[in-house]
Amino acid sequence: MCKPDNMSNQIHIHVTVVKDVPAEKQQKWLEMAKELASETWKEDGCISYDFVRSTEKQNRFIIVEEWESQAHLDAHFNTPHFQTLVPLMDGMSETVELDVSQKALAISRHNDTSSGVSRKHRNGRILVLYDTSSGSTAMIADLIAEGVKLLDKMDVRVRVVPGAAATWEKPETKRDISHPFATFNDVYWADGIACGTPTNLGGISYRMKQFWDEFSQAGGWGSTDGKIATAFTSQGGHGGGGELAAMAMQTVLMNFGFSCFGITDYTGFLDTNHYGSIIAKKPRNLEDKRKCRRQGLRLAEFVGYYINGRDEANPVHTKNADIKFYNFPGIPSRSVPSDVLDERTSAPHVSLEGRSTEARKALIFTKMEDYVHDSTPAMASWVLCKLQEFGWKGVVTDDKDFLESEEKLSAYDLVVFLNNSGQIFDKTEALMKHIEQGKGVVGVHAAIAAFLNGKDASGATVMEPTSEIFHTIFGSHFKNHPPVQKGKVSMNFKNDLGPNLVSVPSEFMHTDEFFNFTKNVYDDPSITVVASLDESTTDGGLMGERHPLAWYRNIGEQKAPVFYSALGHFSHFYNGTGGADSEYVTTILEAGLRYCCDNS
Ligand SMILES: Cc1cc2nc3c(=O)[nH]c(=O)nc-3n(C[C@H](O)[C@H](O)[C@H](O)COP(=O)(O)O)c2cc1C
Questions:
Q1: How many angstroms separate the CA atoms of 477 and 515, rounded?
Q2: Is 312 a residue whose pLDDT tops 90?
Q3: Is 144 within 8 Å of 293 (Cβ atoms)?
Q4: From CA 193, how far away is CA 265, in angstroms rounded?
Q5: Which residues pair with 62 in a beta bridge?
Q6: Is the pLDDT at 218 greater than 80, yes or no?
Q7: What region holds the ABM domain (predicted)?
Q8: 25 Cβ neighbours under 8 A, 6+ residues apart
Q9: Average pLDDT over residues 368-393
C-alpha cells in the first residue's frame, strides 16, 4: 500500500495499488483489508476505497482509491487504522505497482464524483445537512444520524451549512457549529440526504437557501438526480409552520432531482412524521426523539434498498406495524382487524440494532374496563420503544382475543400487562399455556388491579380479587392505595436483573401511588423483591416493615420469567420529563423487561 507522492493539490486524486498476496496469507490479509476499508470509508474526502481481485491471477489484489484532494489523502496516511494496518499488510504482500492518476476526461456520468463505484458493494452514504442558529435543528440532526446508524452498512456525515451571520443575529450569539461545515463534495458523496432547517417565516433559513443556490451555481444542479432526500425542521412552537418549512425544503431538494419520501408511522400517541420530523424547538421527549430516529432509519432503509440494492432494507418489509397502528384504550380507536395486524407483523423486521432478523414479539395489553390510567399511552409507548431497542417487536392491543386464543397468543414470546382494570379477559387457558411454555409475563403499575370486586379501583375501598390468574402469575394482587405521596424507596441489588439496576441509588425519595397488596410477596420464597417502600415515610401503608414495590420470579417447569413493578403512576415517568424519578422508575422497569425478554 505504501504512500504515493508527487500529486497535485485540490484535484481529485485516484490511487491504484497492485499487490500480490501469497495464498496462505490471503485470509489474514483480507481480514485486515476489511477493517482498513470500513474505517477508511468513514474518513472525510474518501470518495471510494475498494479492494478488487484479479480474475486471472488469484493472488493479485488491486486497491482502487479516489480522494477529494491531496490534503484528504495526507490525512488518511495519519489515521490510526492506516498507521497500524498498512505496515502489517505490506509485510505480508509485495507491491507490484502503485499509480497516482487524475481524470483524463472532463466529462463523467452526471458529474457524480462517486460514479463508477459499485453501490451494491459498498456502504450506503448518508449526509445529514442542517442549518441552525440556536442549536435545536442540530439536535434533530444528531438524532437523525443516530437513526441512520440503526441500519448496518451505513456511513453517515453530519454537516452544518456555512454562511455569514445575518444582520439580526447578535454578534455574541454562537451558532452550533460542533459539526464540520458542509462542502459541495459532501453532497456529491452522499446517496441520501436528510436536510434540516430552522423554520423561518414558514420557510427555509437564508443560509440553507444560500447553500443550495451556490451549489447550483457551482455546477451541482443536475448532478444529484435519483438520490434520496428527506427534510426536517425545528419551529418556534406547534403550528408555527414547520410542515410548510419542511415542504419548502423538499421543494428545493426536488428541484435538484432528489426523490423525497413520506413516513406513515405513528411514533407516539397522536404523533407522526408524515412530512419529516417537525419539532417545536429542541427534541426533548421520547416521542420527538423516536420520530427523528425513525426518519433517519427510514432514510437508511430507502438508500439501502434503492441505492445499495439490499432487499432486506426495503421499507415495505421493515414497516413497523405496531407503531403504524398505534391504538390506545380510552381513545376512540381506529380498530385494527387482527388479521391485518398479524399479517403486517409477520414481515421480516430490521431491528433497531441493525440486524436483519425475525424479531421476537411481545403483546402489550392495555385493556382497562374500569379505572382508566392516563399514563397508559406514555407507558405503552415507552415499552414499545424499549422492546425495539432490545431487537424485539411489540404490538399494543386491548383486544382480549389475543389473550384468549391459543393460536393468537402463540405468536408472542412475552405478554406485558399495563395498568389494566376490570374484567379484562375471561378465558385463562391460553395465558397458562404461554407460561407452561416458559414464556414471560410483565406487569406494570395498576396491571394487577384487574379482576377486582369493586367498581372503583381508584383505591379508597379495599378490594378483593375475583380471579386467581394474576395471583398465580404475580404472587399477589392489588388491595388499595392511599393518595399519591412522597416516600422512601429502597433497592435490593442482590438479584439477577443485570448490572444496569445499580445506576439507581440504594435509597431515593419518590412520588407515586404506593399500592397495598393482598399478600406480601416477601413471604414467598420463589420471589425476589428488588424495590421496597419504607412505610414509615408515608401514610396509609398496610404491608408493614417490608413493603414490596417491584419483584420478579420464575414459574412453572419451564421457569417462565415474571416481573412486576408497582411504580410508575404518572405519564412523566415515561416521556422523559420526570427528572430523576423518571430515570429510576424506567431503569427498574427496563431491567425487569430485559430479564423477561432474555429468559422467555
Ligand atoms: C428570522 C426567524 C424567523 C422565524 N420564523 C418562524 C416561523 O415562521 N415559525 C416558527 O414556528 N418559528 C419561527 N422562528 C423560530 C425558529 O424556527 C425556532 O426558534 C427554531 O427552534 C430555531 O432553530 P435553531 O435552534 O436550530 O436555530 C423564526 C426564527 C427566526 C430567527
A1: 10
A2: no
A3: yes
A4: 20
A5: 18, 52
A6: yes
A7: 13-101
A8: 92, 93
A9: 87
Query: Which secondary structure element, helix H or strand E, spans residue 343, and what is its range?
Result: helix 338-345
d(CA 18, CA 1): 8
Mean pLDDT confidence for 80-85: 95
pLDDT digits (tens, 9 = 90+) for 483-513: 999 999 999 989 999 877 888 899 999 999 9
CB of 143 within 8 A of CB of 196? no
Average confidence (pLDDT) over 513-540: 96
* Number of CB atoms found within 10 A of residue 137's CB: 29
To test the pocket of ligand 1, the residue of 174, 200, 208, 284 to mutate (highest count of ligand atoms within 8 Å of its CB) is: 200
Other CB atoms within 10 Å distance of the CB of residue 406: 13
Which residue's CA is minimally distant from atom 9 of ligand 1?
Answer: 240
Overall size of the chain counted in residues: 600
Q: In the structure grid, which three cell numbers stand for residue 414, read together?
A: 412475552
Q: Hey, what's the cell of 344?
A: 403486517
How close is the Cα of 316 to the center of ligand 1, in Å? 35
Give pTM, 2 decimals: 0.50
- Retrieve residue 396's grid coordinates: 399494543
Asked whether 194 and 230 are in contact (CB, 8 A), the reply is: yes
Ligand 1: residues with CB < 6 A are 132-137, 198-202, 234-237, 240-241, 281
Contacts of residue 416, Cβ cutoff 8 Å, sequence gap at least 6: 362, 363, 364, 365, 383, 394, 441, 442, 443, 444, 593
CA-CA distance, 455 to 563, in Å (whole number)? 26
Higher model confidence: residue 486 or residue 392? Answer: 486
Chain centroid, CA 363 distance in Å:
20
CA distance 384 to 538: 33
Distances (CA, A) of 237 to 275, 283, 303, 550: 17, 12, 31, 39
CB neighbourhood size of 460 (10 A): 12
Residue found under cell 489474514: 28
* Interface confidence (ipTM) of the complex: 0.98
Averaged over 51-59, what is the pLDDT?
Answer: 89
% of the chain exceeding 70 in pLDDT: 85
Atom of ligand 1 nearest to the CA of 131: 26
